[in-house]
Design brief:
One of its GO terms (molecular function) is zinc ion binding. InterPro entries: Znf_MYND. Pfam families: zf-MYND (PF01753). Keywords: Metal-binding, Zinc, Zinc-finger. The protein is mostly helical. The strands form two sheets. Strands 1-2 form a two-stranded antiparallel ribbon. Strands 3-4 form a two-stranded antiparallel ribbon. Helix 3 runs parallel beside helix 8 and helix 4 packs across helix 6. The radius of gyration is 18 Å and the shape is globular.
Length: 250
């Protein structure tokens, strides 16, 4: 069943549906509708969001564990993992599905907002869901040897697609997502960078054709090592286009 905005009751493709980033549950079509419903929603939002946190606490995993919530399991050195192609490895199956869906959702949002590019099979073109576009994205992921976990096969891919079409899930292909939603949902100020850099690795280029290799290397170099050394990578949230020398804030 296609989710409807709780305020105006409109559904896709008439409007683009997003979910409250705090509780990951209530659907809205705009900030205006979300604000209009806040008086009622605030009574339940905090209670719902309490159940969304990861089962692993930051104190158990260290300051560089990512993300702080939104997945069943956090990992360390995520940017290093992206660089060596193991970002999706050693994670619960459902977490892999969620990351693939959100990497795709944020990519099409970035292409629309930053490039004015609209995928014909996306929500931005009026489609009821982004499933067709997501399937093409999965094809691209599978074309890179080793990016997907060893347990991935056709049946697991079908499970991933079903999760993306489940209206009860935050990672819903019938709902658009933007940078601020990702940051709030996963509790990390730079988690959107993980999704963007993974998508760049899959598709071969960043938004606008930019190359984020140097930024990825910089982020990875500042992740903590086994002795706990390192810096918080969040302050390096910028992308440099070496051809134009323009810097884009991520």
């Amino acid at each position: 069943m296609t989710p409807a905005c709780v305020t105006c009751k409109k559904t896709a493709p008439e409007v683009t549906i997003k979910r409250c980033a705090q509780c990951s549950s209530t659907p809205y079509c705009s900030r205006e509708c979300q604000k209009a419903d806040w008086k009622n929603h605030r009574k339940v939002c905090g209670k719902e969001s309490a159940g969304c946190s990861s089962s692993s606490s930051p104190s158990e995993l260290g300051s560089q564990a990512s993300p702080l919530k939104g997945l069943e399991k956090s990992v360390t050195k995520p940017f290093t993992r992206i660089g060596n192609g193991t970002w999706l490895h050693d994670r619960p199956e459902t977490d892999v599905y969620r990351l693939l869906i959100d990497a795709y959702r944020l990519r099409v949002e970035d292409e629309y907002k930053m490039e004015g590019k609209i995928d014909n099979d996306s929500l931005y073109a009026g489609s009821g869901s982004g499933l067709k576009g997501f399937r093409r994205f999965l094809d691209c992921v599978a074309s890179h040897a080793g990016l997907l976990p060893s347990w991935w096969h056709a049946e697991k891919r079908a499970c991933c697609e079903r999760l993306g079409m489940d209206p009860s899930q935050w990672q819903n292909l019938c709902c658009a997502v933007e940078k601020s939603d990702i940051i709030e949902h996963y509790g990390m100020p730079y988690f959107h960078m993980e999704l963007r850099m993974f998508a760049e690795k899959v598709l071969g280029s960043g938004i606008g054709g930019q190359d984020g290799t140097m930024v990825l290397q910089m982020m990875a170099s500042r992740e903590v090592d086994d002795r706990g050394n390192g810096q918080n990578p969040g302050k390096f949230a910028a992308m440099v286009d070496l051809k134009t020398m323009k810097t884009s804030i991520l």
